[in-house]
Amino acid sequence: MTSYRKTTMKKLFLIALLTVNCQLSIIHSAVSDLTWYQVCMGQMGTEWYGSDEAKEIAEVVIAVQKTNGGWMKNDQLHKLSSSEYQRLLNEKSGRSCLDNVATTQEMRYLAKVWKATGDDTYRQAFIRGLQMIRTAQKGCGGWSQYLPLSNDNGYQDYITFNDDLMLNVMKLLRDIYNNQGDFADITDAATRTWCRTAFDRALQCILDCQINIDGTYAAWGAQHDTVVPYLPAEGRPQELPSVSGCESANLLSFLMSIEDPSDELKARITAAVTWLDAHKIANHAVEDYTNTAGQKDRRIIEKTGTHLWGRFIQIGGNTGTEVYNKFFDKLKNRGKKRSYTYKGVTYTYTEEEQARANYDPAKAYEPVFAIYKDSIPHMYYRFIYNYEDMPVAFDDKGCPHYTSLFPAVRVGYQYVGSWCQRVIEVEYPAWQAKYNGHGEGTYVLSPETCVSKNGEQTLTFNNAFTMTNDGGWGYVIAKKIYIKLAADITYTIHIPEDLQVTEAVIRGYANYDDADASIILWNNVSYPDDAYFFPRTDAEGKNIIVSHTIDHSDRPVTGELPFKIKGKQLCMSITLTCSRRTSSIDHLSATPGAYKVFRNGQIVFIRDGQEYTITGLTY
User: Fold this and answer.
1) DSSP 3-state of 223
2) Strand 499-510 relative to strand 546-551: parallel, antiparallel, unpaired?
3) DSSP, residue by residue, 528-569
4) What is the 3-state secondary structure (H, E, C) of 278-339?
5) Secondary structure of residue 615 in the 3-state scheme
6) CA dihedral in degrees (362, 365, 369, 370; nearest 10)?
7) pLDDT-derived band of residue 597, with 50, 70 and 90 as boundaries?
8) Where are the alpha helices (DSSP H) in 70-229?
């Protein structure tokens, strides 16, 4: 059977079927029983996508494809009525959408039909969809809901993680550049290269958007601003700027699927998991029930072993102040007002007034709620902190407003859920075992790999190294890539049991303009001040970054590696080159202080400062 655009009789036949308000008679009942998403994702089985009915549906998909290459959301293209079909034809010049799997699912469907039939018409439509994605990618690497943009300073133009928009696009790009399955040779090599580049840019966008709360990486919001520092932003009136438990869980699952993650990516994943685990509602679950008024309702109950997170978790600290002041200022500049009539009296509120008056900074890191119902517009953007029913309160104007969610709102929107639990308890440990297992290589001790919080005395790194000190000095970050360390304190690096350090590279700078800094003790060996020296800031107050390398290859360090600083504060990172204790360098447990190395093709034993080969003492 020829394609839709090449066969005039088939086109007329299809339109005739639709005109008489019949769904496509050729569609098997098994297809119409599925959602359009299920059909696009392959639930009809590989062979079906080469069938006549699959091609007929593909012709509809091409017929309603937007002029700019994409599709609109929420249309069930496999079972359109005649009026629905005509509406989509009339809207071909309208906006394309990436929300709710729109465009990416249609492209997946076309790829399956092209793979099964070899008809280039479907591939060309697929390429037009890819061009839409290419055009829609922002300079920051992310995507918004629509192309073209609304350009009204609204949430639809933000970087959008909500409903997995970014993830759906990135998964498609990854499938294309991997050039396998349905996507094998569907594009040329140059296009696959672009897909990889676009994917990498989007990945960097995700890292750029990870919320940094006063020096500690948390997780992500549902939407983020498109300019540096990519702060979390509002969505609809019930979607306040926040850390999103739901979207963050999905982002983490995706990030953990990336092969050969960089040290930075591993550190960010660990930081997000650590933060989310610390902000759970432990041993609670959501229960659907019928309340005493006979209404469908939801409540939070105690349940051992099940944990909850807020869909929206209020941000605290200086970062929270920045986020919410920016939000309030935006509402003020937008200048929208809404009115509510109660007992014959009309009350008018600005959006800023609604939001600012009910925001409570003391509720940082708690779930925050809001209500979006046109019947009570004076509730838009109001911060609410009670999930369970609370009495209605009256504001200073005498107008009643809700101080908690109520049944219809609780049931209509999932404000709390267990989204993160599987990620933290199942997916993360499996990922950690795969990528953070110990082996020969380098291990970085820096804020990028540290999962401890500011102020903590024990530093825990995502590579199983830890660092303690005997002076009670808390964790402080310098310039995001160095750890601030105090003088006259003994620090101790704790090395995983199966590793030994063969080299250490210390990079950093003295933090003051009136004192140099030096490492005067390293691995229990004292050094003069000028051995590992870090000069004070220069005449212009700029830090002078210095790097020192300490070779331990002749006598690898195991267990603990203590060191001490002289002078004033030293800002530094440490890169340790390690090997397994059971590999080419191995301590002789039976002889304290003795060990062996491979040198120039032979085993050399070292004991009490003397070296021996199998032929005896060397000189």
Assistant:
1) strand
2) antiparallel
3) -TTTSEEPPP-TTS----EEEEEE-SSS-B-SEEEEEEEES-
4) HCCECCEEEEEEECCCCCEEEEEEECCCCCEEECCECCCHHHHHHHHHHHHHHHHHHCCEEE
5) coil
6) 60
7) very low
8) 82-90, 104-117, 120-136, 165-178, 189-209
Handedness of CA 155, 160, 164, 166 (dihedral sign): positive
Indicate the angle between helix axes 52-63 and 104-117, nearest 10 degrees. Answer: 140
- Closest among 519, 449, 518 to 477, alpha carbons compared: 449
In whole angstroms, give the CA distance from residue 311 to residue 250.
12
Contact 17, 85 (CB under 8 A): no
- Encoded tokens for 340: 């509510």
Determine phi and psi for 580, rounding to 5 degrees: -75, 145
Q: Structure tokens of 370?
A: 């809001």
| Cα distance between residue 41 and residue 108, in whole Å | 7
Q: Which two tokens stand for residue 262?
A: 């960089």
Q: Considering only residues 303 and 103, tell me which one the structure prediction assigns the higher pLDDT.
A: 103
Question: What integer pLDDT is reported at residue 425 of this predicted model?
Answer: 85
Which is it for the CA torsion 431, 434, 438, 442, positive or negative?
A: negative
Cα distances (Å, whole numbers) of residue 320 to 229, 241, 243, 268: 13, 9, 10, 20
Q: Is the pLDDT of residue 23 over 50?
A: no
Q: Which residues contact 278 (CB under 8 A, 6 or more apart)?
A: none
Scanning the structure block, which residue is given the tokens 């989509």? 88
- Rounded CA-CA distance 88/85 in Å is 5
Distance of CA 337 to the CA centre of its chain: 35
**Is pLDDT above 70 for 129?**
yes
Rounded mean pLDDT, 195-220: 97
Structure tokens at 474: 């808390």
The backbone region for 190, taken as left when phi is positive above 0, alpha when psi lies in -120 to 50, beta otherwise, is alpha
Report which residue type is found at 365: Y
**What is the 3-state composition of the chain as percent helix, strand, coil, each rounded to the nearest 5?**
35, 25, 45
Residues in the chain, how many?
619
What does the pLDDT look like over 245-269, one tens digit per residue? Answer: 999 999 999 999 999 999 999 999 9
The predicted structure's pLDDT at residue 99: 96
CB 49 within 8 A of CB 128: no
For 567-598, b where at least 16 C-beta lie within 10 A, e where not — what string?
Answer: bbbbbbbbbbbbbebeeebbbeeeeeeebbbe
pLDDT of residue 21: 38
State yes or no: pLDDT of 524 exceeds 90. Answer: yes
Q: Which of 145-154, 442-451, 557-566 has the highest mean pLDDT?
A: 557-566
pLDDT of residue 598 exceeding 50: no
Whole-number pLDDT of residue 543: 86
> pTM to 2 decimals?
0.69
Contact 24, 76 (CB under 8 A): no
Mean per-residue pLDDT of the chain: 88
Cα-based angle 45, 50, 55 (whole degrees, multiple of 5): 115
Joined together, the tokens standing for residue 562 give 């203590």
The answer to whether the beta carbons of residues 273 and 249 sit under 8 Å apart is no
Mean pLDDT of 73-90: 96
114-124 tens-digit pLDDT? 999 999 999 99
**pLDDT over threshold 90, residue 330:** yes
Sorted by where each starts, the structural domains of the chain and their CATH numbers stand as 1-189 (1.50.10.20), 210-436 (no CATH), 438-586 (2.60.120), 588-619 (no CATH)
What is the maximum span of the chain, computed from C-alpha positions, in angstroms?
A: 105
* Paired tokens of 387: 């999930």
